[in-house]
From TrEMBL:
Species, as recorded: Microbacterium aoyamense
Family: Belongs to the ROK (NagC/XylR) family.
Name the record gives this protein: ROK family transcriptional regulator
InterPro entries membership: ATPase_NBD (IPR043129), ROK (IPR000600), WH-like_DNA-bd_sf (IPR036388), WH_DNA-bd_sf (IPR036390)
Pfam families attached to this UniProt entry: ROK
Amino acid sequence: MTDSAVSLDGVRVRNLARMLQLVHRDGPLSRASLTEATGLNRSTIADLVAELEGLRLVEQREPDRRGRVGRPSPLVAASGDTVAIAANPEIDALEISAVGLDRSLRLRERIVVSDVPTPDEVAALVARRISSWREDELVGCRVVGVGVAVPGLVRASDGLVRDAPHLRWRDVPLRDLVSDATGLPAVVGNDASLGTLAEHFYGAAAGIDDVVYLNGGASGIGGGLIIDGHHVGGAGGYAGEFGQNRPGIAAAADRRAGDGVLEDEVSRARLVAAVGRGDLDDRSLARAIATAGTPDILAEVDRQRRILSTALANAVNVLNPAIIVLGGFLATLADHDLAEFEQAVRSQSMSANAEALVIRPAALAADRLLIGAAELAFDALLSDPTRL
C-alpha cells in the first residue's frame, strides 16, 4: 500500500471516529448537523454514515416533521444493539450493567455477596451474567467489551489493581482475569476516575472545564480531577485519592477514628450503623436519612458534613474548581441541606477561590460508575470504528 493510500485511510478512520463520537456523546443528530459539526461536505457525510450503518454502529431514523417546513434530513443515532458490559465490585455486592452505544442502560443488576469477593469470583460472576444475558435479553446484540470500575488504585497502563484495600486485593491482573473468563476485551479503571468522566461527559459537570469529583461508596472515598478540560490521572493513574488525606477536625468530639484518614471519619458504614439497617443501596440509604427523625442519625449526618466541608475547602484552595460533584453517600450528605453545606465549604475557603464555586450531587446518581466503566470499554471502538 502506498503512503498516500495509508494517509487517506487514516483520514477516513478519523472521520468515522469523529462521527461516531458525536452521535454517541450528543445523541441522535441530523446529517445536516453532522455536516456543520465536522466541516465535511454532504456527500462525504452520507458515505461515512453508510459505512457506520454497515458496521451496525449507527442507524438512521426519520425526524419529527411536526412544525417543520421542507424535508428535514434523517437523524443518525448510535446503535443500542452494540453494548458494553460495565461492572463495579464492592465489598458487599457486584453491580453490573449492559450499556448500549446509544448510552441506554439496557440491563442492570445488583448481585449481593455474602463475603468480600475475590478477583476470580468477580471475573466468574461477570462471565456468568454475560452468558445468561446473551441467551435472553441480549440476543442479537453485539458485546464489544467489559469495563470494570474498581474502588482502589489501578495502574493505567495495564489495568493492574495495585491496591484495593477494602476488597483486600493487591497487585491483581484483573483485566486479564476478566478477559480470560469472558472471552472479551476488558479494561479496568479506578471507580471515582470513571465517575468523574461520566459526570464530565453527561452529568452535573457537562461542559465545565475545572471539576473536582468525590465518590463515596462502601469501600471508602475516591475522587477525580478535570483541569482545564483534561482528566488528570497523575504519573501512574492514581491521582484523586481524597479519602486518604488527613482531615482537619476542629472539634475533638467529632473525631471517631483516632489518627484516621478522611474515609475513616466520613464513612458509609458509620451512616448505615446509625440508621440501624444492613444491606442498603445508595437510594435506600438516602431515603432512610431523609426521613430520619432520631437524634442519633441526624447527629452523625451533621458530624460527617462538618468534616467533609473542611476537606472540600482544602481542595477548593488548592485547585480552584468551578464545580465540586459528589457521588454516592457523599451526595446524600450534601443533599441533606445543600445550601447550608455549600456555605460551610465557602466559609472555610479563600474567598477568591470559592467565589464562583457550586457544589452539586452527581446527576447520573447510582448509574455514574457503570456509565463511566462502559465509556472506558467503548473507548477503543470510538477511536477506530473499523476495528470491528
